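Checklist before submission:
- one chain only
- standard amino acids only
- sequence pasted in full

Submission:
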Amino acid sequence: MDEIRGKKELPKAEGNLIKEYPRNMLCIPRSEHILALIATADIKVFKNLE
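Returned file contents:
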């Protein structure tokens, strides 16, 4: 659980997995915008993908 938002967050879950099983996760570096679907701009982009 994210302490500030009080919600389950994927990055937090991944961090916990890496801490507990550091040799069981393969990470491939990426640098791109990921749609969050909580920002108005992201929602507009998502709606236009249809």
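Reviewer check: Residues 10-47 form one domain.
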